[in-house]
């Protein structure tokens, strides 16, 4: 009696696992609602301020790679805070992860995974950190395998395949919990292959990672085109030269490289990037309250953003950098760009770009032009997650929100959809090819589950009736 349904289940699994195709048999759990918690903002945003009950996963940033694969670097303040972080998460049934790497902490990933000996040492360092803090998992925020990030990372053409070997080794470690959560935060294009181009097949990562969070933010603009959105939902509708990545194009790219949509999480930013742009360029000549799209700009011409922004200074590579120009969502309200209800502050011009589904704001006095995210753009992204069968969202960073308006918006829309934004979007960009193919790829495994699961339920009911 007990054995029959199991046998039927394996038939279902077999039926779904077509050779050469990557279809997940595991039934999707509730959508992933994740965020990163930045330890260096703990004074302003303590662990007690996190809306724990709204999350499924919380990832602590950062442990960093070091020249010695045996050692993952942790600041002393992070060492002191991690036990409380893990305890707070566990008290709310939230998975507690540590993120390793980040923009400034990825310098030595390449050597840490560069040989069998180093991988064993690095895996041991990961294992001991997991056990020491009772963490549920590790988020690999390697920026980027096989591709330069900040400028002084070690890069090796075999990075991506070596990274996979490390993850496979971790999965084989029987001393680790079977529920170990392994995730990766990734660029909008798939991990580089050994020629430095985006890999065409990295399906192996889907077997060893719980989810892959596409960091669909910090997308660069192009001086030839002007300032564009830093976190576009779509870019297929953007002008030529400004198609620099988006949720639509990156999900299609990762999916085409063999990662099923239900392993993809959309990384979203609760912040915006600003640029110094004169009002003659930023505002329409015929209507001074109307913002121009793609205004031209001078690279690195940025002022300090909100009070969490990093000022100019020398980075870990020894290179002088301009201020970040970053505004959290609460920072936009604090600095007067937005009122607390998200509407325009006094004298601020706003524009919502229907292609990227993201807003822009401009202060003509300070001449600061910001590309940011708001509840409307988060609802559009949540709807995209829902309608494409993605695993959920991951927000950088938990402390960037304002009274959870962004979190509530994307969480609701990723669970329930937001047909309003979808209808609106469809009428604006009807049938772009990349969007069409990505959603077709995602609905196939889902519909198999819908066909096969009821069959399974029906059959097991028959079994219990007949015995
Ligand atoms: C988690 O719950 C336990 C048991 O109730 C409690 O002792 C502990 O202080 C809580 N941790 C945090 C960080 O609130
Ligand atoms: C292994 O790690 C050592 C540092 O302990 C480093 O010098 C060496 O280059 C690494 N090997 C590879 C192949 O990356
Ligand atoms: C990359 O891996 C190949 C195959 O294992 C090996 O022959 C080659 O030496 C490696 N290249 C580098 C730069 O480590
Ligand atoms: C000027 O632009 C604003 C913002 O886009 C718009 O609300 C307003 O209707 C425009 N005024 C005219 C006269 O077109
Ligand atoms: C616009 O910038 C000016 C100059 O920095 C500042 O004084 C003013 O408060 C800003 N306006 C708003 C509405 O924040
Ligand atoms: C949640 O989404 C549903 C469906 O789109 C919508 O009707 C409802 O207003 C949303 N609720 C919130 C709090 O955003």
UniProtKB/TrEMBL annotation:
<feature type="signal peptide">
    <location>
        <begin position="1"/>
        <end position="17"/>
    </location>
</feature>
<dbReference type="GO" id="GO:0008061">
    <property type="term" value="F:chitin binding"/>
</dbReference>
<dbReference type="InterPro" id="IPR029070">
    <property type="entry name" value="Chitinase_insertion_sf"/>
</dbReference>
<protein>
    <recommendedName>
        <fullName>GH18 domain-containing protein</fullName>
    </recommendedName>
</protein>
<dbReference type="GO" id="GO:0006032">
    <property type="term" value="P:chitin catabolic process"/>
</dbReference>
<keyword id="KW-0624">Polysaccharide degradation</keyword>
<dbReference type="Pfam" id="PF00704">
    <property type="entry name" value="Glyco_hydro_18"/>
</dbReference>
<feature type="domain" description="GH18">
    <location>
        <begin position="31"/>
        <end position="417"/>
    </location>
</feature>
<dbReference type="GO" id="GO:0005576">
    <property type="term" value="C:extracellular region"/>
</dbReference>
<comment type="similarity">
    <text>Belongs to the glycosyl hydrolase 18 family.</text>
</comment>
<dbReference type="GO" id="GO:0008843">
    <property type="term" value="F:endochitinase activity"/>
</dbReference>
<feature type="region of interest" description="Disordered">
    <location>
        <begin position="413"/>
        <end position="441"/>
    </location>
</feature>
<keyword id="KW-0732">Signal</keyword>
<dbReference type="InterPro" id="IPR050314">
    <property type="entry name" value="Glycosyl_Hydrlase_18"/>
</dbReference>
<keyword id="KW-0378">Hydrolase</keyword>
<dbReference type="InterPro" id="IPR011583">
    <property type="entry name" value="Chitinase_II/V-like_cat"/>
</dbReference>
<feature type="compositionally biased region" description="Low complexity">
    <location>
        <begin position="430"/>
        <end position="441"/>
    </location>
</feature>
<keyword id="KW-0326">Glycosidase</keyword>
<dbReference type="InterPro" id="IPR017853">
    <property type="entry name" value="GH"/>
</dbReference>
<dbReference type="GO" id="GO:0000272">
    <property type="term" value="P:polysaccharide catabolic process"/>
</dbReference>
<keyword id="KW-0119">Carbohydrate metabolism</keyword>
<keyword id="KW-0146">Chitin degradation</keyword>
<dbReference type="InterPro" id="IPR001579">
    <property type="entry name" value="Glyco_hydro_18_chit_AS"/>
</dbReference>
<dbReference type="InterPro" id="IPR001223">
    <property type="entry name" value="Glyco_hydro18_cat"/>
</dbReference>
<feature type="compositionally biased region" description="Polar residues">
    <location>
        <begin position="413"/>
        <end position="429"/>
    </location>
</feature>
């Amino acid at each position: 009696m007990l054995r029959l349904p199991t046998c039927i289940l394996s038939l279902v699994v077999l039926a779904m696992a077509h050779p050469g195709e990557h279809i997940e048999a595991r039934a999707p759990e509730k959508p992933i609602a994740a965020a990163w918690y930045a330890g260096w903002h703990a004074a302003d945003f303590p662990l007690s301020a996190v809306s724990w009950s709204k999350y499924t996963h919380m990832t602590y940033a950062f442990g960093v790679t070091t020249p010695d694969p045996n050692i993952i670097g942790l600041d002393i303040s992070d060492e002191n805070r991690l036990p409380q972080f893990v305890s707070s998460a566990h008290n709310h049934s939230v998975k507690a992860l540590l993120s390793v790497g980040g923009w400034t902490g990825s310098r030595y990933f390449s050597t840490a995974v560069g040989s069998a000996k180093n991988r064993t040492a690095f895996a041991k360092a990961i294992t001991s950190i997991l056990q020491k803090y009772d963490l549920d998992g590790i988020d690999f925020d390697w920026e980027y395998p096989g591709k330069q990030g900040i400028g002084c990372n070690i890069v090796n053409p075999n990075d991506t395949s070596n990274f996979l070997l490390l993850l496979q080794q971790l999965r084989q470690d029987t001393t680790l919990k079977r529920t170990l959560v392994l995730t990766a935060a990734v660029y909008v294009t798939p991990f580089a292959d050994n020629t430095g181009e985006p890999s065409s097949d990295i399906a192996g990562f889907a077997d060893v990672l719980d989810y892959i969070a596409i960091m669909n933010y910090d997308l660069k603009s192009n001086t030839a085109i002007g300032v564009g959105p830093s976190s576009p939902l779509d870019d297929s509708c953007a002008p030529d030269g400004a198609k620099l990545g988006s949720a639509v194009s990156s999900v299609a790219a990762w999916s085409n490289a063999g990662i099923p949509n239900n392993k993809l999480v959309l990384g979203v930013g609760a912040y915006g990037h600003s640029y110094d742009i004169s009002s003659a360029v930023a505002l329409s000549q015929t209507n001074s309250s109307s913002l121009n799209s793609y205004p031209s700009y001078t690279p690195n011409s940025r002022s300090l953003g909100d009070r969490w922004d990093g000022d100019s200074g020398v980075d870990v590579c020894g290179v002088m950098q301009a201020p970040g120009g970053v505004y959290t969502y609460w920072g936009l309200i604090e600095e007067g760009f937005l009122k607390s209800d998200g509407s325009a502050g006094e004298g601020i011009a706003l524009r919502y770009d229907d292609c990227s589904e993201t807003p822009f704001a401009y202060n003509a006095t300070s001449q600061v032009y910001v590309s940011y995210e708001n509840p409307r753009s988060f609802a559009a992204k949540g709807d995209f997650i829902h309608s494409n069968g993605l695993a959920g969202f991951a927000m950088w960073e938990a402390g960037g929100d304002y009274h959870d308006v962004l979190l509530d918006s994307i969480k609701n829309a990723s669970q329930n959809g937001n047909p309003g934004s979808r209808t609106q979007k469809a009428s604006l960009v009807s049938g772009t090819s990349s969007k069409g193919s990505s959603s077709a790829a995602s609905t196939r495994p889902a519909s198999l589950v819908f066909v096969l699961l009821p069959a399974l339920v029906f059959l097991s009911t028959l079994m219990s009736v007949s015995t």
